[in-house]
Amino acid sequence: MAAAVAAVQAGHTVTVFEAARTLGGRARAVAAKLPDGTPIALDNGQHILIGAYVDTLRLMRLVGVDPSSTLLRRALALPFADGTGLQTPAWAAHWPAPLDAMVAIATARGWSWGDRFSLIRKALVWQWRGFVCAPDLSVAQLCEGLAPRVLHELIEPLCVSALNTPAAQASAQVFLRVLKDALFGIRGGSHLLLPRTDLGALLPDAAAQWLTQRGAQVHLGQRVAQLRWSAPHWLLDDQPFERVVWATSASNSASALAGCAGAAPDLIANALRTWASQADTLRFEAIATVYAWAPQARLPHPMLALRATPDAPAQFVFDRGQLGGPRGLLAFVVSASSGTRDAVQAAVLAQAQTELVALGVPPLQALLTVVEKRATFACLPGLLRPPQTIAQGLLAAGDYVQGPYPATLEGAVRSGWAAGCLP
Predict the structure, then answer these.
(1) Beta-strand (E) ranges in 247-302?
(2) Which CATH architecture has domain 284-377?
(3) Taking residues 274-281, what's their average pLDDT?
(4) How does pLDDT run across 228-267, given as a tens digit for each residue?
(5) Chain-centroid distance, C-alpha 188
(6) Does pTM surpass 0.70?
(7) H or E segment at 303?
(8) CB atoms within 10 A of CB 128
(9) At residue 374, does pLDDT exceed 90?
(10) Within 13 A of 181's CA, how many CA atoms are on the CB side?
(11) In the structure, what pLDDT confidence band is assigned to residue 423 with cuts at 50, 70 and 90?
């Protein structure tokens, strides 16, 4: 949707074709019910935004969504159920970056002074080096020398939530870029922004309304069956367009573009095949979200970190009752998920019983488990991502396209905005 909004702002006549009957892609609403039959709107994955997502927030405001009412803003805090962990004191919440993050580190509960200084020292080294490292370095290698507690309670969960790739395999360069923007960028860049509405209402529905009010056409449930080059236009099911922004998943894009290369002139065909081959090299990671419910379930904070292990896979839990949802509804997030849906769900419910029982959370009943098997690309060191420009008049948009960010909402918005603004 970002590409369409940017194109309309640039004065273009825009048509959007969406194969699904709902907007949002990986950030969309899904219908569910409580055990008593009450209908509720959930999401196909629990998302977190941060204050550094300036383009996402700008797009929300542009299409009429007020982030201050639709997002719960909290200073950086990753507390565990036992009260330990990183939590920015209230008196430092609005300090300029990176002082707010440094205070959070210096006051982290359960950490020794050695733990704290190891992270502060490492962060200052990263800053001194301009947040740049060798492209083939992993996050685990980047963080060698950090105190084990800091590594396990902060770096690893941050890495897997931001990059959806385990630290031993994740790109240190991309991780450093996220840290730079979040901890050392704008004031409030490290703040956590937790959605208070379903993801459809958060952005895509408002963007569609904004587009149609300005003359754009938005077609839901209409899959493009054929893309074909007929100079000087691209034809989408025989409709001519001066420019096309292809915004499907990497695998679907690669398949579609490779398929239309056979009927294209050599120059166009070679460009399509080259782009498709680059997209085909991407590996993917799954994300699972387990929604569970108990009548009196409530967390001390809207979001808690969890001590994930192979047998207890969730890294975070969200209290949806504190985020505009029904009381008693919790959402557990398993980034870089593996195993079957049933196995993940069972492991998460057992983990909840172990980690949350001290908080008075009763046994939970699973409502819905959503597994996005190809949720994000694996953000590996030295990864070559396909470029924005595919061929003459044909552009790609998506969180997997070349860019500084991993597969996040901000990465998708930045890619779409750039595609819509290109001449």
Answers:
(1) 284-293
(2) Alpha-Beta Complex (3.90)
(3) 94
(4) 999 899 999 989 999 999 999 999 999 999 988 888 899 9
(5) 19
(6) yes
(7) strand 303-305
(8) 8
(9) no
(10) 18
(11) low
- Cis, peptide link before residue 98, omega less than 30° from 0: yes
Going from the C-alpha of 200 to that of each of 24, 45, 50, 196, 355, the distances in angstroms are 6, 12, 18, 11, 31
Nearest residue to 31 via CA among 19, 16, 46, 42: 42
Contacts (Cβ under 8 Å, ≥6 apart) of 408:
53, 162, 399
Judged on CB neighbours under 10 Å (0-12, 13-18, 19+), 192 is buried
Residue type, 365: Q
88: exposed, middle or buried (Cβ count in 10 Å: 0-12, 13-18, 19+): buried
Q: Where are the domains of the chain?
A: 76-190, 284-377
Q: Alpha-carbon distance 55 to 364, whole Å?
A: 37
SS3 309: strand
33-40 long-range Cβ contacts below 8 angstroms, 24+ apart: 33/367, 34/293, 34/326, 34/329, 34/367, 35/293, 35/365, 35/367, 38/326, 40/325, 40/326, 40/329
**Quick one: which H or E segment has residue 304?**
strand 303-305
Q: pLDDT tens digit string along 377-396?
A: 999 999 999 999 999 999 99
Residue with tokens 């980047």: 142
Q: Which residue has the tokens 């080059």?
A: 229
Left, alpha or beta for 284 (phi > 0: left; psi -120 to 50: alpha)? beta
Q: Round to whole Å and give the CA distance between 61 and 47.
A: 19
Q: Is 133 left (phi over 0), alpha (psi -120 to 50) or beta?
A: beta
Q: Which two tokens stand for residue 345?
A: 């769900």
Helix (H), strand (E) at residue 160:
helix 156-163
Exposed e or buried b for every residue in 307-319, given b needs 16+ CB within 10 A? bbeeebbbbbbbb
